[in-house]
From TrEMBL:
There is a cross-link at residues 337-360 (3'-histidyl-3-tyrosine (His-Tyr)). Decomposes hydrogen peroxide into water and oxygen; serves to protect cells from the toxic effects of hydrogen peroxide. Residues 1-22 have a biased composition (Basic and acidic residues). Belongs to the catalase family. HPII subfamily. It comes from Nocardia terrae. Its cofactor is heme. This is Catalase. Pfam families: Catalase (PF00199), Catalase-rel (PF06628), Catalase_C (PF18011). Heme binds at residues 69, 110, 159, 356, 360, 367.
Length: 700
């Protein structure tokens, strides 16, 4: 429905203030003739309190910071639109935005890390938030999820305990945005319900290549409600059209120094360039009569439904196509809440979700200064809002009328109660006495972590072992390390043996049986590759004397596929092209300002003079060697192949065209560079990594 998108746009436009025109004024609209000097008695005397402009300016500055989010403080956001593919989901829900393909719903999505502060780096090892606000015609619906499908705890009452454990330790406020410390692992070692989410945290899923290349999950089991009031259990999934891809841990640590804003910059630049990220929304549907058929409890947020048991069915597509105008007003002030529902969607009795429904609202009250935060432009629904709430901090609207209560006669009985299009809670029968307890199936902690581990590819398993070794190696108390390894032994013997060997610990006696557990191939990221190389970043190393014709030919072919190609040289400005015609080639970045970890692949351009210059430049040599170490595609054409031979990279001998171990070369230069060269490089780039370069063992 184009109307909703246009209504939201007009609503936001009414709040915009153009700072690139007009005169400087006070908050009351009074024009100001100077703002560099406060009013004084003479030019060297005391400042006068009568200077209301100076006082207003400083007062606002003193109060311009609001409390950051306790969790998910570090984030980035964008606007977009969602549209269903077809109407089949209308059999299960009355939510039109999910079921009517004629309805286009505006959205705002905020991605985030969980543990770090606003000033932390983007590429830390952490779970990522994936929160979507749908501005539907029936009201706002918030799908507040993460980039992994499970959570660390089963009951919301333990949320403060978990967050306190993973946050910097209270005695010294160390470490920032990191889980490799005693309190987190002490908590984990004593709370085995955390182990499934910990496996995801130790995996590549905690190190996404970009927000655009990570999955999203609603985590909890919700209900869809149809027109007859019948319910179906549902799990929500976001799948990126670019595929799910990750960084390596070493890359993450380096990127945090080179560009701590790596993920937010990537999202912003992609949208600004018109390369709009896209996700497919999918659902797993479980009829109510099948609620108890699983070996786990559907209400347990530390468990997932294997896709091999309940397939994910595609519902619609979301495209993010506009960056915010102001980070604070939009991305920082957006307020998500798991209890923001619309007719056709309802909760379950998931004990984590039930207390999230309390906690989110409570958090916004303190962060955003009072109960009227829903009136902020980023939070306002496109649906009509009429109620009897009054006053409070941040009251932006001007309510009219004398009566502010129901029922009334002074206002003609309005706002009136509706008899259609309303939200009605699912009438689930309730039985039992109040107890502090969990369902029996909640107490099985090892089967799904085992499934996750045994579903990993060789490289992914290697990375999990390395992550455990790194994290546990940072601990100061050996007993915590030992307790964690004991839990790993109950998950899988091979996992425990490998981690224990890295830590120099004895293998526990109690080991999980080799044949126990199931495998879910859908859990491996290697099953989630996208197609093509759109938005992939390629670094091309050049120097004076570069083969500009060959580079132009290769660059044209790669950018036609949607790749982002940047030329890097030992210096900024431009480089001289090969030949005596005086041509120059603009340099995008100097080598000293970048690193190979910021790119997905590397090409070395030809030209004998350029090859000699690059071969004698330590930064260029390191750039290529590091990219090879990180299993990235590497290519060279013409005399650029000399650099690869100089530094001893394994690859084909100088040949018209060949590829070995993810290194593509051609001896051809200029306009003779074959088109197949770019094709072969693009095929490698689409695979994200050249995993055969990495030795690994496959889990049993």
């Amino acid at each position: 429905m184009e109307g909703a998108s246009n209504d939201k746009q007009r609503q936001l436009d009414s709040y915009r203030i153009a700072r690139d025109q007009g005169h400087l004024t006070t908050q009351q609209g009074v024009r100001v003739d100077g703002t560099d000097d406060a009013v004084k008695v003479g030019d060297r005397g005391p400042t006068l309190l009568s200077d209301f402009h100076a006082r207003e300016k400083l007062t606002h500055f003193d109060h311009e910071r609001i409390p950051e989010r306790v969790v998910h403080a570090r984030g980035a956001g964008a606007y977009g639109r969602f549209r269903p593919y077809a109407g089949w989901l209308g059999k299960f829900t009355t939510a039109r935005f999910l079921a009517d393909p004629t309805v286009e719903t505006p959205v705002f999505v905020r991605f985030s890390t969980v543990a770090g502060s606003r000033g932390s780096a983007d590429t830390v090892r952490d779970i990522r938030g994936f929160a979507t606000k749908f501005y539907t015609a029936e009201g706002n619906y918030d799908l507040v999820g993460n980039n992994v499908p499970v959570f660390f705890i089963q009951d919301g009452i333990k949320f403060p305990d978990f967050v306190h454990a993973v946050k910097p330790e209270p005695h010294n406020e160390i470490p920032q945005a990191a889980s490799a410390h005693d309190t987190l692992w002490d908590f984990v070692s004593l709370q085995p319900e955390t182990l499934h989410a910990i496996m995801w945290l130790m995996s590549d899923r905690a190190l996404p290549r970009s927000y655009r290349m990570m999955q999203g999950f609603g985590v909890h089991t919700f209900r869809l409600i149809d027109a007859d009031g019948q319910a179906t259990f549902v799990k929500f999934h976001w799948r990126p059209k670019l595929g799910a891809h990750s960084l390596l841990w070493e890359e993450c640590q380096q990127i945090a120094g080179h560009d701590p804003d790596f993920h937010r910059r990537d999202l912003w630049d992609s949208i600004a360039a018109g390369q709009y990220p896209e996700w497919e929304l999918g659902v797993q549907l479980v009829p109510e009569h099948r609620e108890f058929e699983f070996e786990f409890d559907l209400l347990d947020a530390t468990k997932l439904i294997p896709e091999e048991q309940i397939p994910v069915r595609p519902v619609g597509s979301m495209v993010l196509d506009r960056n915010p105008d102001n980070f604070f007003a939009e991305t920082e002030q957006v307020a998500f809440h798991t209890a923001n529902l619309v007719p056709g969607i309802d909760f379950t009795d998931d004990p984590l979700l039930q207390l999230r429904n309390f906690s989110y609202l409570d958090t916004q009250l303190i962060r955003l200064g009072g109960p009227n935060f829903a009136q902020l432009p980023i939070n306002r629904p496109v649906a009509e809002v009429r109620h009897h709430q009054r006053d409070g901090y941040g009251q932006h609207t001007i309510p009219q009328g004398q009566a502010a209560y129901t029922e009334n006669s002074l206002g003609g009985g309005c706002p009136a109660l509706a008899d259609e299009g309303t939200f009605r809670h699912y009438p689930e029968p309730l039985y039992g006495a109040p107890v502090r307890a969990r369902g029996a199936k909640f107490h099985e902690y090892y089967r799904q972590p085992r499934m996750f581990w045994r579903s990993m590819s060789g490289p992914e398993a290697d990375h999990i072992v390395a992550a455990f070794a790194f994290e546990l190696g940072k601990l100061t108390r050996p007993v915590i390390r030992e307790r964690v390894v004991e839990h790993l032994a109950r998950i899988d013997a091979d996992l425990a043996v490998r981690v224990a060997a890295e830590l120099g610990l004895a293998v526990p006696d109690a080991l999980a049986p080799a044949a126990d557990g199931i495998v879910s191939p859908a859990l491996s990221q290697l099953s989630l590759h996208g197609t093509g190389i759109a938005t992939r970043k390629i670094a091309v190393l050049v120097a004076d004397g570069v083969d500009a014709d060959g580079l132009r030919r290769v660059r044209t072919q790669l950018t036609a596929r949607g790749a982002v190609v940047e030329t890097l040289a030992p210096h900024g400005g431009s480089v001289r092209a090969q030949g005596a015609n005086g041509q120059t080639l603009a340099v995008d970045r100097a080598l000293a300002t970048v690193s190979s970890v910021l790119y997905d692949g590397v090409l070395v351009a030809g030209g004998p003079e350029a090859a000699d210059a690059l071969g004698g430049d330590g930064a260029a040599v390191h750039f290529v060697l590091e990219a090879f170490k990180h299993a990235k595609p590497i290519g060279a054409f013409g005399d650029g192949t000399a650099l690869l031979r100089l530094i001893g990279l394994p690859g084909p001998a100088q040949t018209e065209l060949g590829a070995v171990n993810g290194v593509v070369v051609t001896s051809c230069a200029g306009r003779e560079v074959p088109g197949r060269f770019a094709d072969m490089f693009a095929e490698l780039l689409a695979g994200h990594r050249v995993w055969q370069r990495v030795t690994h063992a496959v889990p049993a």
